[in-house]
Structures are given as structure tokens and as C-alpha cells.
Amino acid sequence: MTDERTTQGMYFALSAYLFWGIVPIYFKWIDHVSPWEILAQRSIWALVLLICILTYTGDLKELRVSVARLPTLFLTAMLLMINWLVFIYAIVNQNITETSLGYFINPLVSVFLAVIFLKERLRPLQWIAMIVAGTGIAIQLILFGRIPWLALGLAFSFGFYGLLRKNLGLHAIAGLAIETMIVAPFALAYIAWIAYRQTMVFGNDIEIDLLLMLGGFVTSFPLLCFAAAVTRLPLTVIGMFQYIAPTMSLIIAVLVYNEEFGIDRLVTFSCIWIALLLFTVEAWVHHKHQAPAPSNNSA
User: Fold this and answer.
1) Using one digit for the tens of pLDDT, what is the confidence trace for 9-61?
2) Which of 28, 95, 141, 202 could form a cystine bridge with 90, CB 3.0-4.6 A?
3) Virtual CA dihedral for 29, 33, 35, 40, nearest 10 degrees?
4) Chain centroid, CA 94 distance in Å
């Protein structure tokens, strides 16, 4: 049974990260729509679908949260919307490559934030990895006069989001439903405003309308797969899957949409990949040394 659950967990994790990896294709289909309208429509349709899912699973009670949690949830909702907006903006402006870089950087940013805010200590090889990653960003700035703002925006917005969500202890799907519920009044107000100004795309073409409504599924499906994987696999195993999505996005950006991948990006990506490799190897070695030695008792 354990092996079966592990196998199921692998499939769920693979499905989640593969889906996240090809999500840029969906946003390219609607890249003529304003990023702000895409964000508003995505928030509303995600909320509708998430409420339906919670109703079906009998988990609507998970939407009840204490008043003390609301300020933090408001912050996580805003950070999530910033993350979504930057992601959408990057894709519709032919910058899928930078979204890939952002999600490669994200694990390193999460570690950096844990050191700053949670006072976690890094081991020597982890510090070296952080320095290598920082060097990659510095080289792009100093030699090429360019800062990957979109990548850093994605990495830090999601890093802070994870930091704040870490201690809330919320049901994954209910948590996202609450966050989209918080954003819903702003999204509806924006939709009403662009409808009044007659600049809203939704409602003019059934094909585009369906694609915008599909944003609810695009948001919810990988989250459901991820939530199912988390209950079946250790987080250390799930962590190994997280590089699938940005790798897929990079391949799609370069091979499908012919985005430029010049020497500046190659240098930065190489530094990030080396840093991630150092982190992964160090974590594996540390875990191996921490594991209890097998008992020689033959009782």
C-alpha cells in the first residue's frame, strides 16, 4: 500500500509540475488581452471553481478562519496577485525565459528569506551556492547592464508568499479560495470599470471568453495534483520535482516561441544551475549523514 501511495504521489507531483511548465502556452493564447483583465478574470473563475471543489469534497468548513489570520491572508493574497500579474505580463511581452529564471531562483530566494526572517543557519556549501547565484545576477548587471527585474519579482513575491503562508496551517485549496475571495471585490470592480469604458475583451468573442474562463482550471488543476502529492510523498522528494516546471518553460520559450537566449542569460542561468546543484548535493549529503545507522541486532 505504501509503494502504491508513493507511486500515486509521483504521478501527482509530475502532473502538477508538468502542467505548471506548459502554462505559458495558455497565456500566449490570450496575449492580446490586457494582463490586468487576465488577472481579474483568472481570480474570479479560480474562486468559482475552488468553491465548487470544496463543496464537492465537503471541505467548505475549511474556509472558516480566525479574525487574527485575516491581515496575513490579505498580505498573501496581494503577494499572490503580484506574482500572477508579473508572470502574465512577462509572458504576453515575450519574456517566458525570464519567468523560467524566476522559478529557478525561487528556491534560493526562499532560503535567503529564511535566513533573514527565520534566523535559519546555512552550512558552508549552502553559503557558496548563494554566492554563486548572486554572482550570476551581478554579472548580468555589471557586464550587460541589465537586471532581470521580472525574474526577481517572481522569485521574491512567491518567496514572501511562501514565508507568510508557512505558519498559517491552511488547507491548500481553501487557502487559495480565501485569497481569491479577498481579491474578488477588487477584480469585480476592475471588470465593471473596463465594461463601463467598453474596453473589456470578455463578452465579445465566445472562444476568448472560454479561454479566459479556463483560467480557473489552469489555476486549480495543478494545485489539486500538488495537494494530492504532498499527502503521499515527503517534501524532500517533492522538492526534486520543482525544477521540471521552469525547465519546461525554458524549452518552450526557446524552441517554440524563439525567444532570445544570449550570452548574458546563459551566464546567469549557468550560475543559478550551479547554485541549485550545490544546494541539492549538500542537502543529500547532509540528509545521508543525519540518517540513523541501521541496527545490527538480529532479535
Assistant:
1) 889 989 999 999 999 999 999 999 999 999 999 999 999 999 999 999 898 99
2) 95
3) -100
4) 19
Q: Specify burial of residue 76 (Cβ count, 10 A radius: 0-12, 13-18, 19+).
A: buried
Q: Three-state DSSP class for 99?
A: helix
C-alpha closest to that of 107 among 232, 263, 264, 280: 280
Task: Pull the grid cell for residue 74.
Answer: 490579505
Question: What residue type is assigned to position 205 of the chain?
Answer: D
pLDDT of residue 119: 83
Query: What is the spatial distance between Cα 44 and Cα 33, in angstroms, rounded to a whole number?
Result: 16
The ranges assigned to domains in the chain are 2-95+147-260
Tens digits of residue pLDDT in 230-262 = 778 776 677 778 888 999 999 999 999 999 888
Instruction: Return d(Cα 12, Cα 244) in angstroms, integer.
Output: 13
Phi, psi of 26 (to 5 degrees): -60, -45
Task: Provide the grid cell at 155.
Answer: 522569485
